[in-house]
Amino acid sequence: MKLSLMQENLARGLSVVSRAVSGGRPTLPVLANVLLRTEDAGLKLAATNLEIGIATWVPGKIEGEGSLTVPARLITDVVAGLRAGERVDLEVEDGTTLHLRSGRSQARIRGIDPEDFPSLPTAGERPSVRIPQKQLRHALAGVTFAAASDEARPILTGVLTRFSGDSLTLAAADNYRIAVRTVPLGAPAEEASIVVPARSYSELTRILGETDDPVEIRLAPSRSQVIFSVDGTELVSRLIDGQFPNYQQVLPASHATRVVVDREELLKSVRLSALIASSSANVVRLAIGTSGPSAIRIAASADIGDTEGEVEAMVEGDAVAIAFNARYLAEALQNMVAEQVALELSGPLSPGVLRMIGDDRYVHVIMPVRTPS
Asked: Are 148 and 173 spatial neighbours (Cβ–Cβ below 8 Å)?
């Protein structure tokens, strides 16, 4: 292998794929490496930790075909230390050593045979779906944080991804909250339901841009992986086996109280209360309609002190006092993009439902905290 490319292009490509490199000491040494392979008048870079794999293409001038895997962290640091705007020459010597030259600097890095590198699927089957990057990015931001981090129930560490007609539904849940987002599709998709690890979606979000350019979604031939193609970069994720819980059974069908409030003002008040609540059980209390039909009172107390504040609101229905986990409530509010949100309640021990005013494609359910009366 012998080729040349620009330092900034190589550095950018390495920063993208390095997110998929196994941390620590992987059982397979090659999983700590990045694959370099000449392809399509450039260099293909790839890395995987067997849960996700990321591959991207960097333009370059090829003088000799070939491939090699080298330690990801080392080559990333070496390339980052080279001067931007200069050409980098790469050449494989003796089949196992990568020689880098740029300006007056050079380095040699010992590698591992690329035959040991796990193959990543590059072709997919239906459903093939194209969604604007910006639209998918915002949708993922609204649901992935609600997935469970505890591996006790692996299915809950994933995000249900269901294609149905002209819409895509994303749902995530742990034992205390549920987030559901529906995304319209430009063309009908084949019916399919998969569960993608939330960690994979978090990495995909880093790749997606604030653009209407599409991201293409395909199932791998094995149907055990899903492929996301974005501007010359592909992210491959394993799927989680199992049946995702029927979250629709938990979504309340009615409410006795509805509050419309400025999202940012409510978030500020919840965060203030969380400073006190975090030293105790992390409980924040909401009193709605108890001090008038135009305010919601947010309070928290602990051994170190207490806090209380009011936010202007439009209250409909019964007065109610309810308690939530402060972190869960804050995370829900900060990941919603509407100026105003509606909080729907059916009583102090029933789930609370958050909706965005002006956008009925998102719903977030939070379980209340039982507190001494």
From this structure: yes
